[in-house]
């Protein structure tokens, strides 16, 4: 089968991905072999390819927004309710120990033994991938195309958790910094829940998309929003925006930082950025409960997913376009 691997981490334009031929993997006990139909291109894939994230294994295949069909089920996988031919989704969280204090208290996203698709295990930039059936998601076999479901599996789920971590009050004012794959899905969820959303992002095309999706305003990333914010989410991996977003919060507001990687944060002034009970919070991965809850919300709301399609054979170009801000919405690889 064809697969892409991170050969040598470096700038996306330098070709850190390499296309290779591999044997088709075999599912072990409790695992699913998945015939990949679509795989979203996430900024985390870019961080891995460019070396911002330390590789967990050599020549790993990226991709953790995978939609496909079950091609084969390993022994015991049927106990999770999957059968050959089922439409299935594979997300970032690939496994946890289930025994540590974090797993036992429901915070499996903090498990120190957690594993991740496309980082610890080969992901979806390939014709086939293997996943633990306990961490796969059943997807509806309806009219929604595979490429529109794929971004829900990370961009959507992480945005959902980031919104929860931001503790936006009902009918509150939410600021969104950066407006890519996750942000454009999260904005729709927040608006559907009754929030007023203000988008702060540098790209004019992204600003236009934000307004088209129902944002109350769209301005430059370093501009002040038109009113104080009850909560904010930082999706752009730019540490310089942390004090900007904190300063835009009203009293008691919370800034939730959604990325797995962030450039250095400048010095914060207590009086300007944190006083009056402003809160700064990080977001770490997600739990399976987050995934199930968000996918149920998405099935009800059917958010508009702004997709830029690429054939799987052009995964390297998709990653380079993401690095250069040439993707408006979310890039999705389609199997050739």
Automatic annotation (TrEMBL):
GO MF assignments: oxidoreductase activity
Domain of life, source organism: Bacteria
Protein name: alcohol dehydrogenase
Keyword Metal-binding: yes
CDD domains: CAD2 (cd08298)
Major enzyme class: oxidoreductase
The entry's keywords: Metal-binding, Oxidoreductase, Zinc
Catalytic activity: a secondary alcohol + NAD(+) = a ketone + NADH + H(+); a primary alcohol + NAD(+) = an aldehyde + NADH + H(+)
Limits of the Enoyl reductase (ER) domain: 15-333
SMART domains xref list: PKS_ER
UniProt family annotation: Belongs to the zinc-containing alcohol dehydrogenase family.
Gene3D superfamilies: Medium-chain alcohol dehydrogenases, catalytic domain (3.90.180.10), NAD(P)-binding Rossmann-like Domain (3.40.50.720)
Cofactor(s) listed: Zn(2+)
Enzyme Commission number: 1.1.1.1
Keyword Metal-binding: yes
Region (Disordered): 1-29
Signal peptide: none
SUPFAM superfamilies, per database record: GroES-like (SSF50129), NAD(P)-binding Rossmann-fold domains (SSF51735)
């Amino acid at each position: 089968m064809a697969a892409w691997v991170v050969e040598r981490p470096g700038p996306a334009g330098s070709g850190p991905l390499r296309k290779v031929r591999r044997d088709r993997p075999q599912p072990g006990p409790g695992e699913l072999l998945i015939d990949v139909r679509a795989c979203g291109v996430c900024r985390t894939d870019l961080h891995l390819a460019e070396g911002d994230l330390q590789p967990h294994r050599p020549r790993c295949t990226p991709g953790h927004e995978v939609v496909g069909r079950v091609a084969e089920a390993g022994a015991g996988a049927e106990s999770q309710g999957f059968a050959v031919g089922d439409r299935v989704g594979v997300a970032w969280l690939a496994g946890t120990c289930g025994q540590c204090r974090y797993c036992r208290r429901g915070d499996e996203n903090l498990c120190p033994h957690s594993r991740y698709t496309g980082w610890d295990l080969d992901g979806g930039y390939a014709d086939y991938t293997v996943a633990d059936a306990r961490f796969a998601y059943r997807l509806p076999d309806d009219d929604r195309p595979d490429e529109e479901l794929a971004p829900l599996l990370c961009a959507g789920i992480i945005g959902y958790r980031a919104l929860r971590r931001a503790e936006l009050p009902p009918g509150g004012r939410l600021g969104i910094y950066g407006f890519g794959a996750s942000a454009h899905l999260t904005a729709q969820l927040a608006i559907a829940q009754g929030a007023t959303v203000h988008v702060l992002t540098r790209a004019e095309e992204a600003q236009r998309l934000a307004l088209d999706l129902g944002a109350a305003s769209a301005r430059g990333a370093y501009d002040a929003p038109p009113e104080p914010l009850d909560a904010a989410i930082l999706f752009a991996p730019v540490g310089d925006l942390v004090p900007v977003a904190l300063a835009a919060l009203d009293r008691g507001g919370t800034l939730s930082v959604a990325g797995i990687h962030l450039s250095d944060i400048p010095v914060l002034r207590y009086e300007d950025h944190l006083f009056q009970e402003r809160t700064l919070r990080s977001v770490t991965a997600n739990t399976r409960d987050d995934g199930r809850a968000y996918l149920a919300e998405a099935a009800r709301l059917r958010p508009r997913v702004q997709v830029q399609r690429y054939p799987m054979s052009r995964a390297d170009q998709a990653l380079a376009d993401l690095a250069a801000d040439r993707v408006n919405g979310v890039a999705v690889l389609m199997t050739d």
